């Protein structure tokens, strides 16, 4: 579940509990939100927990920004992995003489034997 959907769901449940039972303290809501996050959010959870207080909007903004950062990092890892695979394939083909076709064609085009 993306963080925005998660936050909206928790807030809706909280609002419904406010109406049905009793008012939920903002600090309790923030604690429950942070406790429900996956392990990959640990750095931001530690940072948020080190503050004296945080507003709901600031909590949302902070978590959504962090999620965007995680998505960026995952995209970079995927790109790097793809580049590493390409380099590995090139190295493999060069080591095993699978690039001779291109080498011969280039030599003939450039006037070589």
Q: How would you explain this protein's 3D organization?
A:
It contains five helices and no strands. The chain is mainly alpha-helical. The protein has one domain.
Helical residue percent?
Answer: over 70%
> What's the helix-strand series?
HHHHH
Briefly note the structural class of the backbone.
Answer: mainly alpha
Sum up the overall morphology in one term.
elongated
Please tell me the overall pLDDT.
78
Oligomer: single chain
Q: Rg to the nearest angstrom? A: 26 Å
Number of strands: 0
Largest sheet descriptor: none
Tally the helices: 5
Strand content: under 5%
Total domain count: 1
From the N-terminal CA to the C-terminal CA, the straight-line distance is: 61 Å
Low-confidence runs of at least 5 consecutive residues = 100-105
Q: How does the SSE layout of this entry go?
A:
Layout: H1 3-20, H2 26-35, H3 42-49, H4 56-95, H5 100-109
